Amino acid sequence: MEKDLVQGKAKELLEKVTEPEEFAGGLQALLRLASEEQRQSSYRRIVPQMGENYGTPIPVLRIIASELGKFGQRNPDQIFPILGLLWNNGSFEERTIVAKSLEKVGKGDWGRSLQLIRSFIGDISDWAICDQLAMFGMKPLITGHPTEVLPLCRKWAQDDNKWIRRFGVVALYSLTKDKKYQLGRREFLILELLMEDRDKEVKKAVAWILREMSKKESQMAFEFLVSQAEGGCKDTRWIVREGSKKLPGEDRERLLSLL
């Protein structure tokens, strides 16, 4: 579907925002209209744990989320019930729209956005939604309020639920891209909690965020990885190998010699 058409239909839907159930039904109809059968099976192949999905292209979801986000910035009292309903409906597309909408909404009402996200994370059952919510929904919260949010990331990193642990790690992603933010010991201490994690989804996330941190603070990342490489278990060694791929060549060679 063309961008103008999707935007128009999203704006029409927002006229029904005071009737959440009607809004949700209209959105699902739009998702079906824009769906592609081959994309539906493609999503399932990439994310085996994925539940219901319509096969709607990601660019369409971004357009819808942008309209919801802009509306939510002006009308927070009306948007939060809608976002809660869409999340609870449970489809990949609806939850992706929620995550991307919160990227805008959270700039204005970070407290309610954080409260909403905290109510969501126990429902996460695949890496795609985990990362969408952590990267986009959490972006304005962790970059705007790191003092309040980083202790939560530390708490999440110690959860029994692997998706919550991964969420706590991936939420750090936005800090690695914020040019004004200075990474420090507290971010690396969160990762340290997971350097012996046995779950592959968690290990992949830790290694990924370490690579991103290396691009921003290579010396700090190198020193951290050295401290973990010496005497680490096999899971730690795997994370060190994968997480060091963005270090300068000489540093990585020195690091790998310790494994």
Number of DSSP E strands: 0
Low-confidence parts, pLDDT < 50 over ≥5 residues? none
| Global outline | elongated
Note the total helix count: 17
Radius of gyration: 20 Å
Write down the overall mean pLDDT: 94
Q: What's the number of structural domains?
A: 2
Give the class from helix and strand content and strand pairing: mainly alpha
Which sequence of SSEs, written as H and E, runs from N to C? HHHHHHHHHHHHHHHHH
* Distance N to C terminus: 51 Å
Per DSSP, what share of the residues sits in E-state strands of 2 or more residues? under 5%
Instruction: Describe the main β-sheet briefly.
Output: none
Fraction in helix: over 70%
Description of the molecule:
With 259 residues, the chain is mostly helical. It has two domains: 133 residues, no CATH class; 122 residues, ARM repeat domains (Serine Threonine Protein Phosphatase 5, Tetratricopeptide repeat). It is 74% helix and 0% strand. The chain has 17 helices and no strands. Helix 6 packs antiparallel against helix 7, helix 10 packs antiparallel against helix 11 and helix 11 runs parallel beside helix 14. The chain is elongated. The mean pLDDT is 94.
